[in-house]
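Lecture 7, part B: from sequences to assemblies.

Below are the input chains for today's worked example.
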Amino acid sequence: MTPEHWSPRIVAFFCNWCTYTAADLAGVSRMRYAPNVRVIRLMCSGRVDPQFVLDALARGADGVLIGGCHPGDCHYAEGNYKMLRRFQLLKRVLRGLGIEEQRVRLEWISAAEGEKVKAVINEMTEQIRVLGMLGMPRRFEEWDSEMHQLEGAVRQAESTLIPPLDDEEEPETLHA
Amino acid sequence: MATHCEEIRIGFYVCHCGHNIAAMVDCEAVARYARKLPGVVVSRDYRYMCSDPGQELIRQDVREHRLNRIVVAACSPLLHEHTFRTATERAGLNPFHCQMVNIREHNSWVATRKQDATRKAKSLAQAAIHRVRFHKALQVQRVSIRPEVLVVGGGIAGIHAALTLANAGKKVFLVEREATIGGHMAKFDKTFPTLDCSACILTPKMSAVRSHPNITLWTLAEVTQVEGFIGNYRVKVRRSPRYVLEDACVGCLECIDACVYRSPKFPDAFNEGLGKRKPIYIPFPQATPKVVLIDPATCLNLKTGKCKQTCLEACGERQAIQFNQQERLEEIEVGTIIVATGFKTFDPRRQPLYGYGTYPNVYTSLEIERLVNASGPTGGEVVARDGRKPRAIGIIHCVGSRDRKTNVWCSRVCCMYSLKLAHLLKEHSEAEVYNFYIDIRAPGKGYEEFYNKLLDDGVHFIRGRVGEVTDWAMTPEEEGRLVIRVEDTLAGCVRRIPVDMVVLATGLEPQPDAQAVRRLFNMSCGGDGWFLERHPKLAPVNTFADGVYLAGCCQGPKDIPDTVAQAGAAAAEVLSLIDKGYVEQEPNTAYVRDEDCSGCKSCIPLCPYNAITFAEDRQKATINETLCKGCGTCVASCPSGSIVQRLFEDDEVFAEIEGMLAYDA
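Predicted structure of the full complex, as structure tokens:
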């Protein structure tokens, strides 16, 4: 997608019992909200593996929303608490990667809170619209091509025994 | 990609759901898009996929095109996943080779632009198409259902459900918090619109509960703990001391006469505080069980230990009174649970403008029920608290209902019981009766006719929300009386109606401990605090906890006919489970891949069901799949990725993420 036509893409992981049902309720109540969130249903927010979040971001999501039952209300007693702990660690990892905090969000939304689904999705979409595209796939491509250039330069340097990074041709090939 | 060698042949179907989806999603375009995706052999759109011809379409395609995976983009899987899994199974495939895409609740119903909704539908469809290739053939698991049933709450809902089940030969435990069953209905004088005597139709059912060999009735009892799952619940019930042996007491009530308190002194809760009782008492003459009880807060002997214990003497050799009775904890095992914990009425002190608690002659509707009752504190005579007989009575509707300041919902019964009370008050007194209403809601069999009858009987109806009840007189006629100030919206003027008695038609509210009860049974509450049914139309007595059902007003305000109907429905759901003997469960349990497990034990404390143990001999974690409930928490936290959750395998979720973002990347 070209940056001019860009609109945030948000992957959501909703627990079956509370937040997914709340999203169904929002639909049944015909609440209109931003079309930017795509939901993956899991049985419990405790099932959300941090790798799912990282994978979604790496594959081009601009944000990830995790929805679970309110504390104390988990259908499986305490899966949401486990998610909460994992989320704290995940936030550190994301900070380390330079990914803005607002891009990954954890929300407790009960089965009755269709209105909250709408509010959270609208708010998050707007926040990410302001932050702009995360564009991890393109960044990966850039890093890959940089690595390729570097490899090529090293190979060339090894063959000619000239230090690689000072080579004049390098910038040209980099932007090719 | 797929690790198995069979060729993946996917059939993809987009449902129009009439206009529900098609109006906002270009279904043809979605089908066209999906046709190009890898593995898709057939891609169609159809008006109603859940209909018989829709399901037949799947069957034909499976036969003709040798499909082995089915993806249906339609409504929420919570609604029709079962339908399409069954259709997939009937077509000769494993039911779990089917995946649903929610393009109605999550898409067409919430979108504003067709173009956005169509894009979203394509991306969701692609996610499912990528996911379904990883689906494994799974077998449903069967859990056996214990035939015993727990019914919580002994109002008319609990009574009816318990009797229905007991008559079908099932063992029922009926747990009631109060000293007697009967609930609110036992307090009513008559029932609308037929004016049946409430006690006459209820008490036979109450005694049937007491004498039924299949019902174990525990009053003064509360459920304190619920463990386990559908088919096999372990429940702890705390039984508070009654200080009277239920089996020994014959209900002669001689002990009450003999009590050292010569006359009743303490407010009587059954009569809404309008009457008095002694420390040893029976809530009302037909209380079930018909056994006296001693209130430890007022009994002289229990409070101070210094009493002549004349009640013991009166009881004599029956020896039913036991001052040293202790609280008991019962543990029972049941397969299913019906929650029928009822409601409480709105406390009108929260709306001071109606003067309840300020002016003694302002009453709640429940107080009036007792006042007009022949067995009530005045023997059915309408006498105000100041001892006067009212010349005019005003009934104010919607107190704590249809009000943004208190409760927004309509309590459904107040209009009709106000009409009933208007009729009864007219019958029991000479008074003029005024009804102050917003709308009269009489949507039931014979209800509108009852309203018309009251109009003919000369009951006054004034449309308008009451502004205030005051004793500030402006004319000699108003002197010493209460004045209801109201805007008569039909006459278009503000009026002052002097009356001698005001009746507040208080609305219905969730029980104050509804949240705690909800947690106890793992149910959900709506935003208004009523217990949430699984589906408002198609599963109105089911909850989100399998094997737990709802009956009566704990789910929302309703009248007696609706309550009884719902209690019957809950009992029928339970019976169908018990008679089937088992329930099929989602095969979404987790298992450990031994070859990858490092034996780190980090999963073991995470499982809320203690389903994971450590096999010391092999140095591996193992999951007991009969205990596993399929939350997947252990899966997400296994550092070596050796735990797999069926239906939600890592491969499946990653494929879903990948597919979702592949569209329009």
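Note for the exam: Chain B touches chain A through 54 residues (CB under 8 Å). Keep this in mind when comparing with the next example.
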